[in-house]
Design brief:
The protein is mostly beta strands. The protein is 10% helix and 43% strand. The termini are far apart.
Length: 184
């Protein structure tokens, strides 16, 4: 009796976590980004990108302990990844996605990220794209909307080096500083 109850609970948890996965189809319909659970218990998220309908392997772009959102540029050349580290902060990373060979995995290159990564009480989001000028329009909310800004950020042409911030434990010394609301 107990074992059937445990199996039922595991199946319900699996179905619940499977329903939470999202797919982000590129406008050109050739690529897709998708999320899966990071941990076996369904917590955290991983974001992958792959060719659709090709059977080619997927590329892991980001993982964290909370949730991740993604938005494609209208020309399907860029994928903006919104990394919701917790309810108090969110950062944006912009990857260029190359579709050179559908038989292999796509190539993802980090070209931009929001300034001061992992800053408490600062939440970034994607508003729109200006693909003709290689730019992205971002909204910055500070302290739960107390101050809002709209920023047009240029997406560079030189690849950035990205430390896997979302995969580091908060107690590790490599982590970027965490700030209190007063900025100290």
């Amino acid at each position: 009796m107990r074992s059937s109850f445990a199996i039922t609970m595991i199946l319900l948890a699996t179905l619940h976590s499977a329903a939470a996965y999202e797919r982000f189809i590129a406008p050109n319909q050739l690529l897709e980004a998708f999320t899966t659970a990071k941990e076996p218990d369904g917590t955290g998220m991983k974001l992958f990108v792959r060719y659709r309908r090709s059977g080619a392997p997927a590329v892991l772009l980001l993982q964290n302990d909370r949730w991740i959102d993604a938005k494609w540029s209208p020309d399907s050349r860029f994928l903006a990844v919104i990394d919701h580290l917790d309810g108090r902060m969110a950062d944006v990373y912009v990857f260029g996605i190359s579709a050179a060979n559908p038989a292999g995995p796509p190539i993802a290159t980090l070209f931009y990220h929001t300034p001061e990564l992992r800053t408490y009480y600062v939440q970034w989001d994607v508003v729109d794209w200006l693909v003709n000028t290689r730019s992205i329009i971002l909204k910055k909310n500070v302290h739960f909307g107390f101050r809002q800004e709209t920023i047009v950020a240029h997406i560079g042409t030189t690849a950035l080096q990205k430390k896997p911030l979302a995969t580091l434990r908060p107690d590790m010394t490599e982590c970027v500083r965490n700030r209190t609301p007063s900025g100290t």
